Amino acid sequence: MTVLQLRLVVEAEDYEEAVAFYRDVLGLPEQAAFQGEGDARVAILEAGRATLEIANPAQKALIDEVEVGRQVSPRLRVAFEVTDAETTTAALTGAGARLVAPPTVTPWRSRNARLDAPAGLQITLFEELESLAERSARPGFGTGERA
């Protein structure tokens, strides 16, 4: 069995606001859009490479402490890798996102910002400051794969 795509489906009360925010401001290209009876609408936006990050409660608490300084994460949070966390944070807060925590350099060498965004999502913007190979060489980092 091979998984070909990870798709996160989010219900947005204000569909137009959410599409404008994620497509037009964050810059996620529209792959497809469909409309059905009863004003049913969906936009499928490309978000680059997808990963599924599974964290235990202690790691979730650590991430909140590093990025925000207190526990704020819901059970699910969406993270977007960007090339410039400072500029993207400014653009998204200018488009209506609420800043939870400004861009901060983390111990795992990324610059992360936390925002409350449209469609009820809490998002992290992260800018990698080192390559995966560089980070993997640090103590406490690795793939976690079992032989």
TrEMBL record:
Superkingdom: Bacteria
SUPFAM superfamilies xref list: Glyoxalase/Bleomycin resistance protein/Dihydroxybiphenyl dioxygenase
Stretches assigned to coiled coil: none
Transmembrane segments: none
Stored InterPro entries: Glyas_Bleomycin-R_OHBP_Dase, Glyoxalase_6, VOC_core
Domain VOC intervals: 2-128
Protein name: VOC family protein
Species whose genome carries this gene: Amycolatopsis suaedae
Lineage: Bacteria, Bacillati, Actinomycetota, Actinomycetes, Pseudonocardiales
